[in-house]
Amino acid sequence: MILNKVISILKVFNIIWLVNKSLLILSIFIRIILGFIPYVNLIIFEKLVNSVVLFVESNINYESIFLILLIQLLLMVFNSIMSNLMELIDNKLEYNLDYYLQKKTGKKAATVPLAYFDDNQFYNHQSRVSGGLGNRMLVPIKNLLNILQRLITLISYMIILMNVHWILAILSTLTFLPVIIVNRYYGKKNFSLLISQTPKAREANYYRSLLIDRASAKEVRLFNLKHYLLQKWEILYLDNLKEILNLFKRQSYAKMGLDMATGILFGITSAILIRIIKSGNLTIGMFVVIIQAIQGMQSTINSISFLLANIYKENLFIQDLFNFLNYEDKTINIYKNNYSFPLLKEGIVFDNVSFNYPRSTKEVLKEISFTVIPGEKIAIVGSNGSGKTTLVKCLMGLYPISKGNIFFDKISIKEINPHSLWENITVIFQDYVKYHFSVKENIAIGKIEKINDYHRYKEVTDKTDLDILVSSFKNGYDTILSKVYADGEELSGGQWQKIAIARGLFRSGQVFILDEPTASLDPYTELEVFEQFQKISEEQTTFFISHRMAAAKMADRILVLKEGQLIEEGNHEQLMELNGEYTKMYNMQAKWYH
Question: How far apart are the first and last CA of the chain?
């Protein structure tokens, strides 16, 4: 356990060293200097008190007093300069570290398998390590350096007390261990509470986001949801707050007990000091210095104890962060091979493909098998929850299959480099992202490295008639597609649909997938979109996914899914002759088109 904590601290130290070693070295040097200042300050103060006493008693030259005061003033200025410089260095280190760690955690979140995002444990873990990374990672190192600084101060106080009587030094250190134990205990309790409260905190943040988010603002007002959402947020927030305050109350009682013990020890130490004074071995200046040294020593011990406990507490967070960065679900297959995606000649084969989500035994897809020849247009239909989207996510390698295999010209999907796979498959999802970017960026996001390829860009905008739409905008293709920004434009569902299709065309690829991207459109507009897309993707293998049967008629072949199983397969006429699930669905929707 201790070894793991030491390893975690060393990892953080190594990261900070990589981020900016010169600042780290300077921070250590300044703290060492600051550690000696209290000792020097006490020595000067002793001389000042003794000089003042001599001046009052014998009226000696007061120039020495002004010289000591000047030295003390210069020491205060020096201490202020060093302290502020240290704070500046620490802030710069924190921002550099925060940048480094946000980049690392962002990269981790963007590269893990998509299936991780169906795992609430991963979400909770990500939520816990999402804020204040630089500060929380730097705190243990700052605390270690501050402990070094205070140890130097503590040793100097002990030297002063030992010169008077060894018992003074011993009594002043008795609270060291109890303070460490109490602070360590409550540090662990605080972190455990953070973990247990994460699900509620995420849920509460979601309700609050509905109150302040632009996307939900219309319905919150239309349905008068303000009080309902506030109530749900309030219950969760106050539940968490109650637990936090209860722990804080218990921690406060423990600290009051420690403060009482410290006060008693100070009283005993003061009584011993009075006996020493009666012996006549102390000057007034030394007496004042010893009192300050005792108080300073106890304060320094409490500070070191708190810093050690805080290191333990923050080390739990550090280990949690490293666990997130190293997070790997062994139950999920990850494709890491380096074969390139082939130029399709034989086609795509699903061979008894099954899929279940992480930590679930329920099969969302059950032993699905079919073959697609290059250039074929396949429609995948079925009711909501039948597994249509899951099937194409398996086809794209976003969901690693649980059983069976998928072959592209006899090469297993498990042997193809994921990036090569994604380069050759273009998809437009139902919930495609409407980026608050310019028109040009929204299209080129499909292959952002080609954003300045004018010919590619012009070709797709002409095919989708976007040039006509954008010509009406003041800033043309540089127009921001959101009213959140000045001079932005809002698009209708059909216009966004053209953006999404243009994005897919801009990306290109051997396989096109339309995963219900027209679900928000009326049936007639949907047919127009499918017809347009079919014309501009004649050479590609295409999958149309829809729960509307009219669009499926345009396909070469139709796959009918129900409860994760492939139950029917054929073209429109063949499936109508079967008089099965497809016929039933088609007849139910026929009234839409009459």
Answer: 72
pLDDT in tens, 511-535: 888 877 655 556 666 666 666 666 6
Burial of 345 from C-beta contacts in 10 A (0-12 / 13-18 / 19+): exposed
CATH number for the domain whose boundaries are 2-325:
1.20.1560.10
Question: At residue 281, does pLDDT exceed 90?
Answer: no
Residues linked to residue 545 through DSSP beta bridges, in sequence order: 380, 515
Going by C-alpha positions, the residue among 347, 341, 413 that lies closest to residue 377 is 347
Residues in contact with 29: Cβ distance below 8 Å, sequence separation at least 6, in sequence order: none
Cα separation values, 7 from 11, 53, 319, 324, 372, Å: 6, 55, 10, 16, 52
CATH architecture of 348-424+511-594: 3-Layer(aba) Sandwich (3.40)
Distance in angstroms (rounded) separating the CA atoms of residues 497 and 434: 10
| Half-sphere exposure (Cβ direction) of 280: Cα atoms closer than 13 Å | 0
Taking the domains of the chain in order of start, what are their residue ranges? 2-325, 348-424+511-594, 434-508
* Half-sphere exposure for 169 (CA within 13 Å, toward CB): 13
Cα separation values, 451 from 439, 495, 503, Å? 11, 20, 11
